[in-house]
Amino acid sequence: QIVLVSGHLDSWDVGQGAMDDGGGAFISWEALSLIKDLGLRPKRTLRLVLWTAEEQGGVGAEQYYQLHKENISNFDIVMESDEGTFKPSGLGFTGNAKARDIVKEIMTLLQPINVTDVYDNADGTDIDYWMKDGVPGASLRDDLSKYFWFHHSQGDTMTVQDPNQMNLCAAVWTVVSYVIADMEEMLPR
What GO terms are given for molecular function (predicted)? Predict the structure, then answer.
């Protein structure tokens, strides 16, 4: 059984793609790294996917889906960060009411960093195939007030990244992915 965390590499036109979506790729990598560094071993596999070709029609996501859809019942949740890594506020979530209640409970663990909101609908080109087939999905929600200042521009460089805000994003990704991966049962569908 798999909990999938992901981001994609988006620097295809201008800039470095550090915020869009290098930040999402980084926090996904960091979540698994933190779990390993803490010596935690969840009941399910945590799988990191760094998507490619999202801007060229989601070719990488479609290929991955085609290769793994026969095991769709083993995918517990698919998580994608693709809205930058500014100050997080919560998760967008797609799934049934019982699964949403579980995710809301998990998010209460993040009260010390004031990131507890669960919004309707996860967004993510790379996880859409899975969500359309009923796999619960989550996307990081954060402060988008500056997102389009840098999105697909020469300004999307490493200097855009705030290490403190990225750490908060990584904390959200780490807690949510680990708790779901370590629950007794998969999220209800």
Answer: carboxypeptidase activity; metal ion binding; metallodipeptidase activity
Q: Which tokens is 57 given?
A: 């029609």
Do the strands 137-142 and 2-8 form a parallel or antiparallel pair, or are they unpaired? unpaired
Quick one: pLDDT band at residue 30, thresholds 50, 70, 90?
Answer: very high
184 has pLDDT over 90: yes
Catalytic residue numbers? 54
Distance CA 51, CA 94 (A): 20
- Cα separation, 120 vs 122, whole angstroms: 7
Please list, in sequence order, all residues whose beta carbon lies within 8 angstroms of the beta carbon of residue 98, skipping any fewer than 6 positions away.
Answer: 188
- In angstroms, the CA 92 to CA 108 distance is 15
Sheet holding 117-120, edge to edge: 45-51, 2-8, 75-80, 137-142, 88-94, 117-120
Residue 126, preceding peptide bond in cis (omega within 30° of 0): no
CA 101 to chain centre: 19
Query: pTM value?
Result: 0.95
Locate tokens 């300004």: which residue? 155
Give me the domains of the chain, ranges plus CATH numbers: 2-182 (3.40.630.10)
What would the pLDDT profile of 82-106 be if each residue is shown by its tens digit? Answer: 988 999 999 999 999 999 999 999 9
Cβ neighbours for 70, distance < 8 A, ≥ 6 positions apart: none
